[in-house]
Amino acid sequence: MRLKNKVAIVTGAANGIGLAIAAAFVQEGAVVVLADIDEQKLMQEVKSLTTNGTTLRGVQCDVGNTVDVKNLIQTTITEFGKIDILVNNAAVAIGGNIMEMPETDWDTLMNINLKSVYRTIKETLPYMIKQKSGSVINISSTQAFRSWHNWTAYAGAKGAMLSMTNQLAGQFGENNVRFNSISPGAIITPMNVKRAETEGTAFLEKSAAQHAMNRLGTPLEVAMTAVFLASDEAGFITGEDIKVDGGLCTLPRYTE
Ligand SMILES: NC(=O)c1ccc[n+]([C@@H]2O[C@H](COP(=O)([O-])OP(=O)(O)OC[C@H]3O[C@@H](n4cnc5c(N)ncnc54)[C@H](O)[C@@H]3O)[C@@H](O)[C@H]2O)c1
Questions:
Q1: Neighbouring-strand partners of residue 128
Q2: For residues 146-156, b (16+ Cβ closer than 10 Å) or e, as one string?
Q3: Residue 84 domain boundaries
Q4: Annotation says 254 is catalytic
Q5: I need a surface site. Which of 17, 39, 174, 184 has the fewest CB within 10 A?
Q6: For residue 142, which atom of ligand 1 is closest to its CA?
Q7: What is the pTM assigned to this prediction?
Q8: Is residue 253 one of the residues assigned to a domain?
Q9: Residue 195: its pLDDT value, please?
């Protein structure tokens, strides 16, 4: 019960890493508001996570839309009175060679993966400052550190998230609001399953082979790092990025 009495918002919580984070937070005793654009899957997951003694809500929210984000924050405040933890997890995987990528794809990706972080933090921070505590966790990616053909836009948004995390950690540390990020390696989630359907499974096998641990990660492994960063155990940790990447960045596996 490391998150007992804490109120958490997790975006992109209907699938994959976001769902695993929401489930782990519930397990640790938090009140969790799950937000996702996919209302049907969201409500299905809220139902399956609900047991005796748990408090959770599903709020349909497109993080690319300011009105939706304002509604998410206001609903949380109205129902639960505070926000202790904000996890910016929602994102889309749109690839493309920069010479061919349509500007509309670039703008869509930046709006959902990056501007969303501005929106949620802008709306949440005043409450965290007022209550003199808060933990914001931004889900970045090892693609912010490593080159990968045709993922310039995605990697650019993830790198910008890391810079935002540092800036905000420096500015609001004295308010006891902590900003950290997690950079996962390749994790088996619907995002990667969808890519495998369109691109074939070879990229997953090649990707696994680059990790020192020679495997893909699980959503739970990312979720337990989020539990730690959200908890009071991490009370003196801010401005940090924790890679949950099986050694991908620091100990890439030698392959012939
Ligand atoms: N899976 C990986 O290998 C991997 C690696 C590094 C980083 N990440 C990051 O982890 C996070 C979660 O990835 P995942 O693999 O679980 O993705 P996923 O596609 O499996 O799940 C993403 C969720 O976000 C929701 N979503 C998409 N657009 C949204 C919007 N506009 N508003 C609200 N919700 C929206 C989707 O409906 C979905 O439920 C993302 O930020 C991703 O970039 C994933």
A1: none
A2: beeeebbbbbb
A3: 7-244
A4: no
A5: 174
A6: 6
A7: 0.98
A8: no
A9: 84
* Main-chain dihedrals φ then ψ at residue 136, nearest 5 degrees: -110, 130
Distance 104 CA to ligand 1 centre (A): 19
Domain count for the chain, please give it: 1
Mean pLDDT score, 99-128:
98
In angstroms, what is the span from residue 16 Cα to ligand 1's centroid?
A: 7
Percent of the chain with pLDDT over 90: 92
Task: Identify whether 1 is part of a domain.
Answer: no
198-252 pLDDT, tens digit each: 888 998 999 999 999 999 999 999 999 999 999 999 999 999 999 999 999 999 9
Q: Let me know if residue 2 belongs to a domain.
A: no
pLDDT of residue 191: 85
Give the chain's mean pLDDT.
97
How far is Cα 154 from Cα 136, in angstroms, rounded to an integer? Answer: 21
In a domain, 181, yes or no: yes
Closest-CA residue to 157 (of 117, 190, 186, 120): 117
- CATH number of the CATH domain containing 39: 3.40.50.720
User: Is 68's C-beta closer than 6 angstroms to any atom of ligand 1?
Assistant: no
